[in-house]
């Protein structure tokens, strides 16, 4: 049985990946490394990083994020745990689409509001929380320009019931650590299967910094990178929080309505 453990304790940016985290036969990504990941080749305007500050620890925390298509044109999708550090809400959260090489070519977009599902807020840290490890962040516009008017049209959420079993997802993120720069977009192809409200792939083993990035299914986003097995696991896996749920649809509708009102 899978050991679904929370990413806050597993995705450690300083951890050294083992030599055989994902069996070579399971790596689907062309040029994929021992975790199944390879450089994406170029930055994407609809994907970037969220950075926030923990004033107690005095540290900055970085996660992946993606521009989500909405009528307000101002929403970012990420993981719920990316809004916190050691249980504390991060301050000064900003989103940088198209982030590459430590630069933000499309600007820095300050967050003005955020939403997480009640299933995340109301439960203690446990595997039962993982299906709700989703968050939406509303960012302020720049004059008359919205996030989507600068970064391009956002990713659309996958429609319920349209995913076929066995089709690979493309996981995007900015892994950090001794073998990863943390400033460059990486991707991993993984076949995902449903398991107790989440999606699990054994083809990708997300390292620190990979949280919050989107999992693409065709031209849509099917989930968010949430957690992984310990890096010492010789058959590592990654857990994705899926978007094709009614709680997420309700949260998206509410967030979009609030951001449209300004």
From TrEMBL:
- Does DNA repair appear among the keywords? no
Q: Which GO terms describe its biological process?
A: proteolysis
Named from the GO MF annotations, one term is: serine-type endopeptidase activity
Q: Which organism is it from?
A: Nonomuraea endophytica
Task: List the keywords (alphabetical).
Answer: Signal
Q: Which residues form a coiled coil?
A: none
PROSITE patterns under this entry?
TRYPSIN_HIS
rRNA-binding found in the keyword field: no
Q: What is this protein called?
A: V8-like Glu-specific endopeptidase
Q: Which domain of life is it from?
A: Bacteria
